[in-house]
Amino acid sequence: MRVLVTGAGGFIGSHLCPALAAAGHELRSSVEGCDAVVHLANIAHVSASAADLHRVNVEGTIAQAKAALGAGARRFVYLSSSKAARPDNAYGRAKSIAEQALLQLEGLEAVILRPPLVYGPRVKAKFLALMRAIDRGWPLPLASIHNLRSLVYVGNLVDAITRCLDGPGQGKIFAVSDGAPVSTPELCRAIGRALGRPARLFPFPPALLGLVPVMARLVQSQEADDRSIRAELGWRPPFSFEEGLRRTAEWYRAQGG
Predict the structure, then answer these.
(1) Catalytic residues, which ones?
(2) 3-class secondary structure, 26
(3) What are the pLDDT digits (tens) for 20-70?
């Protein structure tokens, strides 16, 4: 299959493109002559302005989908976000609006994936910061948090995207995850085990942590129910949560921490 991946140079795209090539797909640099498009090129920062989010994540996505249709590429796999399920900020709302617009485009075989937090080799931002804090033995005020957060290893997400390129699934929205959600303290301890370092957690009132912007997302719950993709497409994550963390920790160590 001839596939265009937008955002190919990003974190997820850097994993997806080699996997598609290994699976026998032909990667293209323009939509002309393509059979399918995987659209990753969106703003991923919740701190971006509502105007920028709408311009890129909504208008840009619709324009790319219409270009795909015009070029004869009917299958369109869109990487949305778990935040589109219950949008409580401009980022989630933009993702939700883009989803609905894609599903209403006549002739487009849209398949939408909603990943939660994605981690893996070359991860950046808050997940990488959390790994560094645990590796350096910093005390973290997270022991009293009782939440549930879903995650997805980038290798599992890539496998799900590949599965959605052909076959059934058009017109569907699928959540995708590693499996059972974990609490923030459980995540920290699992990262510590992968790094060979104990996570140093101490209790602190979660209500007060939630007032600190950098800590607020660690306090919140964000669960992804991926039963639909498992039932309808027969998809199963090829990597366990522990294996995903182990591979991420190996990459982190190879970069010198």
Answers:
(1) 91
(2) strand
(3) 999 999 999 999 999 999 999 999 877 789 999 999 999 999 999 999 999
Q: In what order do the strands lie in the sheet with 172-175?
A: 26-28, 2-6, 36-39, 75-79, 109-114, 172-175
pTM over 0.90: yes
**Look-up of token digits 């957060």:** 149
Residues sharing a CB contact under 8 Å with residue 250, sequence separation 6 or more, in sequence order: 121
Residue 141's CB is within 10 A of a number of other CB atoms, namely 17
Q: How many CA atoms lie within 13 A of 13 on its CB side?
A: 17
Note the helical H segments in the chain.
11-22, 50-53, 61-70, 90-103, 125-135, 154-163, 184-195, 206-209, 213-219, 227-233, 241-254
Tokens of 62: 């619709």
CA dist., res. 85 & res. 22, Å (int): 32
Tokens of 137: 């033995």
**Are 102 and 109 contacting, i.e. CB atoms less than 8 angstroms apart?**
no
Residue 186's CB is within 10 A of a number of other CB atoms, namely 16
